[in-house]
Structures are given as structure tokens and as C-alpha cells.
């Protein structure tokens, strides 16, 4: 028992919150205004609604891993810590000064990694890498990047939605990403902003795999790769729902409270599809092992 306690003390982890309070206070001073900006600019929108969930659950994962951090903790190389901060702090300052929230959060993330490296060392961070990968999903991707990445998917969603609704007799027509039903026009780029929730779907899927499945990295990559078609299917469901609401009840109903409800339907449908695919894959893998 004495040797274990000596080992922890030797690693400099007796009371890091007291010994390193200037770093912690400094990081909190940087993080608070950034969190307020995230809440105002990103988390209040549908595409960034996963942010607070990822931040809270990511913090919980780190807290849950603290015993494992302590086992291998050693003070990080001060030169490497300084290099990390010299890169991250200018990115944070530039993003904060010019209101580039993606750069601001990325810089803050880098500062946090640098401080954790100073407290625990490289070995501890590499041995417990998943919480840091997961927390990276708090960084909001630039809007222009998401628009460019999802533009072909939006065209595909509008095409599939139109074909499916025409098949059941709904008089809907498509011109690019604009759907025309009755006297109304729906712009899929706006109605289908849920494509941007793909980031949140990937993050929550990773959290689910890590926490409940403890699966291999190959299985994890496979399931995450399937999130893209799952997101497309969920968006087809959402856009079709909005078109049907507009056709039967008018634009006012479709763009009101039920518009947000359709967004919840999107995310719920996508998560249920992830769980269903995971169950089917797990069942198939168990059957393959038994037959082998």
C-alpha cells in the first residue's frame, strides 16, 4: 500500500489542482468566454445542438479515466508543452479577435491538450486517447466546409424524396434542391440543415461504441462509416415529413413547431438506425464466430 502511494507521489500527482492552479485558472479564463460564444453562435442552432452533450460527456469520460491517468502520469516535457501552447494560443487569440469561432475553439482545445500534457505527460494522453478524440467534436466545423461536403448529399436527398413521394401519389416536383408541392416551394438546403448534424451523429455513435461495446477499432471505423448513409436516410425521412406537412396543412404548420419536431425526428431516427445496424452487425459477427 505504501509503495503504491509513493508511486503516485513520485509521478507528481498528489494534488495537481493545487500545485498547478495558475494553469487551471488561466484555462478557465480562456474557456468561459468561448463557451458563452459557443452557446450564442453554435449550440443554439440545430447543427450544433450536440455540442453541450459532447462537452459534458467528454468531461465525464476524462473524470472516469482519472485513475488510469494516475497510474502512468509523469510531468510532461516543458519544451513540448511550451511548443503546444505557442501554436494553440495564437490560433485562439486570432479566432477570438476576428470572431472565427472554429479557430477560437480549436485553439482552446490545443491549449487544453497542452495543459493536460504538462500535468500527465505524453504516455498518459496516448494511453487514454479516446476522450480527447471525442472532445474534438466540440470544435464546430466551418460552415463553408460543411456546405461543400454536404451539397452532393442534399441533391441526392431531394432526388430520393421527390421520387418516393411521387411514387405514392404526392404531386411534388424538383428543381435542383428546391421542391415544389402545391403552391409552396421548399429549399432543401434550409429544410435539410440536419445534414450538418452528421458531426453530432458521428460523435454520439463513437461514444456509444466506446462506452457500451468496447469494440475494436476496425469495428468502430465500420460503424462510423455507416453513419453517413444512415444520416442520408434520416434526412430523406425528415424532408419527406416536411413536404407532407406542407402539402396537407400548409407552410405555416410545416415551418412552425413541427419543423423543430421534424429535426428531433431526424436525430432520433438516425440514432435508432445506428443502434439497429450495430445490433445486426454484432449478431452477424457472433454467428460467424460460432460457425468458425
Which oligomerization state do the chains in this entry correspond to?
A: single chain
Global shape: globular
Give the uncertain stretches in residue-range form.
Answer: 1-17
Q: How large a portion of the residues is in β-strands, by DSSP E?
A: under 5%
- SSE ordering: HHHHHHHHHEEEHHHHHH
Biggest β-sheet description: 3 strands, antiparallel
Fraction in helix: over 70%
Strand order of the largest sheet: 1-2-3
How many DSSP-defined strands? 3
Nearest-integer average pLDDT: 80
Structural class: mainly alpha
Radius of gyration: 23 Å
Number of helices: 15
- What is the number of domains? 2
Cα distance spanning the termini: 46 Å
Question: Can you walk me through this structure?
Answer:
By secondary structure, the protein is mainly alpha-helical. It has two domains: 2-138, no CATH class; 143-291, no CATH class. The protein is 77% helix and 4% strand. The chain contains 15 helices and three strands. The protein has helices at residues 2-10, 16-19, 21-41, 51-72, 78-97, 101-120, 122-127, 130-135, 143-167, 188-191, 198-213, 217-225, 227-249, 251-254, 257-291; strands at 172-175, 178-181, 184-187. It has a three-stranded antiparallel sheet. β1 and β2 form a beta hairpin. α13 (227-249) runs antiparallel to α15 (257-291). The longest helix is centred in the C-terminal third of the chain and has 35 residues, at 257-291. It is globular, with a radius of gyration of 23 Å. The two termini are 46 Å apart.
